Amino acid sequence: MLEKSNHKHNKTLGDPHALINGQAVHRCGRMRFGLREFSAVGSAVIAVYNLMLLLNRPAVLADIARELYIRARSPLGLFGARPLRVFRYFSAHYIPVNLDRDFNSFCEKFKEGYCGIIICKTGGIFSIPHAAAIENDNGRIYIYNRFPTAAKRYEFSSAEFAADKKNFIVGYYINAAEFN
C-alpha cells in the first residue's frame, strides 16, 4: 500500500531526465521511499536511475522507487534499500549486472567501458548505506551522487580512490558496450 501512495506522490514531482547528483539538494529529494524522503534514504534508487541512464536505458525515477521498494526495501524503507537486494531490480529487467562484495576484486574487474553502482557504509550499525553510480570512461572514474549534498559528479584516476575499502559493502558492474 505504501508503495502505491508514494508512487502517486513521486509522479507529481516529475522525472529529472538527467543524471542526478546531490540527492539532498536536488528536487527529487522530496520524493518518498517508504516512510522517508529520498534526501535521507533514496541513494540506491538514484544510483539505479543513474546507471540506467549510463546504459542508455532510461527509466522513470518514480517507477524505479516503487519497484525497489517492493523488491529491496528495508523495513518500511527506514534505511533505504538493502544493498544486496538491489540486484533484484536488474534481474527483473534482464540486465546482466555482476556483483562483487570484495573491494579489491571489484576494482580489478571495473575496466574501461564499465559502469555500475557502489554501496558503502556511512557510519555505525544503524546508519543508512549510501549508493552511487560509477562509470569508467577512458580510464577516468566518474561517480554520480557521491555525497547527498554534492551537486556535482566526482572524478578519480582509478576505482581504488572512489570509495573507502573498509566501508565497502557491494559493487555492481556491467560492461556497457557489451550490453548495448
Radius of gyration: 15 Å
| CA-based shape | globular
Mean pLDDT: 92
Per DSSP, the total helix count is: 7
Count of DSSP strands: 8
What is the H/E order? HEEHHHHEHEEEEEH
The main sheet orders its strands as 3-8-4-5-6-7
Q: Roughly what fraction of the amino acids lie in strands?
A: 15-25%
Would you write up a description of this structure?
With 180 residues, the protein is α+β, with helices and mostly antiparallel strands. Helices cover 31% and strands 21% of the residues. It contains 7 helices and 8 strands, in the order αββααααβαβββββα. The strands form 2 sheets. A 6-stranded antiparallel sheet has the order 3-8-4-5-6-7. It has a two-stranded antiparallel sheet with strand order 1-2. It is globular, with a radius of gyration of 15 Å. The N and C termini lie far apart (35 Å). 43% of the residues are buried. The model has no long low-confidence stretch (mean pLDDT 92).
